[in-house]
């Protein structure tokens, strides 16, 4: 499914939700009753809309931070591994090519297996094993053939790669707070649209247009937040190309 197709489906779902409720409400309420709801209901809706706007803004900021954190962890991890290979090769620690081969195999395992697992909030045992092989290959390299500075640099790069990998997996797993926040925002969005069904002008056309516009705008916000807040799944997921480009023999 392409991003354009997904967007159309979100908008279609918003229109269906808006119109289905509007048809039911207008079947049971007359134009006069709808107009009578506007003074009191409109005042209450203004307060509710402010609460929803605050939650929506927080969700978008949180989702953007999640995507930025995922992208930063990927860049940090792959950069550290690439630098580790360069340091090991230049210092003679990787004379047999075991470190380079382990890094290359790890990158391929992440792209082929772990990316799919992260879409479900999990990590890949296979990729974890390949990562352990990278660390063992580095720490088992002949120290006598390398300089002390190269060894210290390599150790720092290995630690940086471990931290970045853990951060990437944590971002993919999410947390209970994010789930609670999304539950609240989706519920508020549905109520915001449903609230608008009982408020409106006597014109059926104007009522339908305003309700559909509100529903589509809300759906766009939710869709954008969903895309940014799920960096490893969906049509706008981050690409594992950096792991496939890791150097190796």
From TrEMBL:
Keywords: Membrane, Transmembrane, Transmembrane helix. InterPro entries: DUF4239 (IPR025333). It comes from the Bacteria. The chain crosses the membrane at residues 7-29, 45-63, 180-199, 205-227. It comes from Skermanella stibiiresistens SB22. Pfam families: Bestrophin-like. Coiled coil: none annotated. The keyword Ribonucleoprotein does not apply. This is DUF4239 domain-containing protein. The keyword Nucleus does not apply.
């Amino acid at each position: 499914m392409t991003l354009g197709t997904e967007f159309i489906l979100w908008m279609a779902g918003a229109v269906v939700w808006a119109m289905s409720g509007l048809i039911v409400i207008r079947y049971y309420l007359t134009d006069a009753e709808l107009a009578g709801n506007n003074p009191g209901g409109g005042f209450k809706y203004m307060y509710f809309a402010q609460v929803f706007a605050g939650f929506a803004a927080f969700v978008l900021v949180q989702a953007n931070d999640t995507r930025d954190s995922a992208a930063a962890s990927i860049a940090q991890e792959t950069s550290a591994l690439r630098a580790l290979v360069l340091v090991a090769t230049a210092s003679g620690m990787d004379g047999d090519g075991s470190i380079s081969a382990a890094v290359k195999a790890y990158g391929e395992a992440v792209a082929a297996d772990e990316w799919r697992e992260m879409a479900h909030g999990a990590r890949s045992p296979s990729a974890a094993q390949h990562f352990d092989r990278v660390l063992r290959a580095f720490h088992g390299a002949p120290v006598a053939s390398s300089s002390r500075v190269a060894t210290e640099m390599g150790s720092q790069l290995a630690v940086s790669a471990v931290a970045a990998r853990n951060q990437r997996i944590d971002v993919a797993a999410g947390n209970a707070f994010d789930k609670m926040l999304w539950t609240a925002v989706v519920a508020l969005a549905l109520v915001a649209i449903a609230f608008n069904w009982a408020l409106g002008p006597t014109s059926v056309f104007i009522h339908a247009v305003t309700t559909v516009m509100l529903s589509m705008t809300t759906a766009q916000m939710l869709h954008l937040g969903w895309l940014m807040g799920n960096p490893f799944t969906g049509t706008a997921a981050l690409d594992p190309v950096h792991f496939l480009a890791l150097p190796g023999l």
